[in-house]
Structures are given as structure tokens and as C-alpha cells.
Write a structure and sequence with these properties.
The chain has 237 residues and is of the alpha+beta class. The chain has a domain of 116 residues. Helix content is 14%, strand content 34%. It has 3 helices and 16 strands. The strands form 5 sheets. It has a 4-stranded antiparallel β-sheet, with no helix packed on it. A 4-stranded antiparallel β-sheet has the order 7-8-9-10, with no helix packed on it. It has a 4-stranded antiparallel β-sheet with strand order 11-12-15-16, with no helix packed on it.
Length: 237
């Protein structure tokens, strides 16, 4: 992601644009071209080839995924004095706005190593409590993990959210008392990708959707309530 910033001071405007210096970008700059697979690559036999190629590059230490492989190109959010650049396949990147208006990438934020899963590009900050509510989804159980981050920037313990299978869960919502999860039938289907030459995520028009409603500060999912709704997909709330 390239971030654009404008600083207005003493009647003058200063404009800057800078790429978020992700680990992925720095490695691809070193190689002089793209080396990581992109989500758009994940279709048919070519998708399988790209998955295997990236796994081989990791095994041979050509690519280093220790510090993530996301693009930080989906959204920005400000919380606890930090500007975060986000993509849902990775952890947040912290970007600092300097005194002269320039932008500097400080690196990945893992909340003192408490964040061990992906982080949605659309977390929610409560404007009254200054807390941030977030989640990550995965291709392996637990398919969804919910987190609360205090106004002081402390990430609380993970709350696994049980859903039947891996789905693309791009966004969620909060109210004053609840967090709302969207279990909708855009499904992770690697076998169909290879067998039928399809994209790795496939919408199933025969399945119903569900909203899961959980009190915001619950320490587990025991009290979550699921409500069925007609077949649909909602990318953003």
C-alpha cells in the first residue's frame, strides 16, 4: 500500500506519499519482482503450483515469512497512539507520522507476542471506551478468533469462535454491548480449485448465512447466539 498524507501548518500544505515497508515489499524489492503468491493466483492447477512454489521458497529460505507476508494495503486505523496499516492475512504494521509530515514504517505489531493469528483489516474502535475489537480468520480450526484490545493497547486473551468450516470473514460489527460475527457461505475450497479450475473461495448458493452475537467481554464462546438468515454474502457491514 502507498499511503498519502497531507500536513497543513502555518498556512502551507505539505504532501507526501510512501509505501508501507512490509517484509514482503522489502524482499520483493531485493529480488526485483514479485516472489510471493497473490490471492488472485489461487485458481485451478496454477493455484496449486503457486502454493507449492511458495512452500518450496520458504523451505529453501529464499523467502522469509518470520515477519509476515501481508501487503498492509486494505485499511488504516488509529488506536492507542498508533497508526496501523492492515491486511487480513497478516498482523498490523505501525506507521509513524513524523514532525515534518513524512511517513515511516516502524514494523509489525504483535502486542507483546500475544497476537499469533491474522488480524482483520476492519477492526472496530469504540469511540466512548477507546477499546479496539478485532478478530482473525483461518483455514484451520479455530476458523475464527476474537480479541479485545484495551484503551492502553493491551491485547486480552483469545476467544475461539466455533464455525463449521473455513469461510472468508472479511468484516464484523460491534454495538454498545455485543460483537457480531458473520458466518456466510463464501467457503474455502482448495479441492474444488484444483478439480474444477475454480477460485479457491467459492460461494455456495444452497447454504444459509448466520450472525453470531456475543457479549463484548466474554472470555469464551459459551453464550454466543447464532441467528440464521437467507443465503447471502456481506463483504462489509
Amino acid at each position: 500500500r502507498m499511503i498519502h498524507a497531507m500536513r497543513i501548518k502555518d498556512g502551507k500544505a505539505t504532501y507526501v506519499s510512501r509505501y508501507v515497508k512490509t517484509s514482503r515489499l522489502k524482499q520483493e524489492e531485493y529480488f526485483g519482482g514479485a516472489k510471493f503468491m497473490k490471492i488472485g493466483d489461487l485458481k485451478g492447477f496454477f493455484g496449486l503450483f503457486m502454493v507449492q512454489m511458495q512452500a518450496l521458497r520458504k523451505k529453501l529460505k529464499i523467502l522469509d515469512v518470520t515477519y509476515g507476508f501481508g501487503t498492509a494495503n486494505t485499511a488504516l486505523i488509529y488506536h492507542h497512539g498508533k497508526l496501523l496499516a492492515l491486511s487480513e492475512a497478516d498482523k498490523p504494521y505501525v506507521v509513524k507520522v513524523l514532525e515534518d509530515g513524512d511517513l515511516q514504517t516502524l514494523g509489525l505489531l504483535d502486542y507483546d507476542k500475544r497476537l499469533k493469528h491474522s488480524f482483520t483489516a476492519h477492526p472496530k474502535v469504540d469511540p466512548f471506551t477507546d477499546e479496539m475489537f478485532t478478530f482473525g480468520y483461518s483455514h484451520e480450526p479455530p476458523y475464527c478468533t476474537y480479541r479485545v484490545i484495551t484503551k492502553d493497547g493491551v491485547m486480552l486473551d483469545p476467544v475461539p469462535i466455533t464455525i463449521p468450516e473455513s469461510v472468508m470473514m472479511h468484516d464484523f460489527a460491534i454495538t454498545e454491548n455485543y460483537s457480531i460475527f458473520m458466518d456466510l457461505p463464501l467457503l474455502f475450497r482448495p479441492k474444488e480449485m484444483v478439480k474444477n479450475g475454480e477460485f479457491i473461495y467459492k460461494f455456495d448458493p444452497t447454504k444459509k448465512g448466520r450472525f453470531g452475537i456475543l457479549q463484548r467481554y466474554e472470555k469464551d464462546e459459551k453464550t454466543i447466539r447464532w441467528f440464521e438468515l437467507p443465503n447471502c454474502f456481506i463483504f462489509h457491514n
